Amino acid sequence: MTPIVALQALVTAASLDIEPSAAELDAIDREMPLIRAEVELLDAQIMTIDHPANELDERRIRRARNRVLAARRDLTNRAGMVQSGGAA
């Protein structure tokens, strides 16, 4: 009988102790305002899980959604400026 072996190379890295590169850390830093805004929205939504949302909760969620949209807009605009600046 012939043994069944994988014909493809391993998908995972050989060592799991690798650190993020400087470019990856910079990308995380650029996205941090959006990450914080999304966490605030999630917190506001979690607070309304066990009871019906009152007027204050609705305002809190609406403001958190607006912060997420503003952070996404700012991140997209910054990414567009970087690409258009180096493309010409």
Straight-line distance between termini: 62 Å
What is the H/E order?
HH
Gyration radius (Cα, Å) is 22 Å
- Contiguous runs where pLDDT drops below 50 for at least 5 residues: none
Largest pleated sheet: none
Basic shape: flat
Structural class based on helices, strands and sheet pairing: mainly alpha
Strand content: under 5%
What's the quick description here?
The chain has 88 residues and is mainly alpha-helical. It has helices at residues 22-47, 55-87.
List the helices and strands and how they pair.
Layout: H1 22-47, H2 55-87
Helix pairs in contact: 1-2
Structure description:
It is a single chain. The protein is mostly helical. It is built from two helices and no strands. It has helices at 22-47, 55-87. The chain is flat and about 70 Å long.
List the defining traits of the structure above:
single chain, 88 residues, mainly alpha, 2 helices, 67% helix, 0% strand, flat
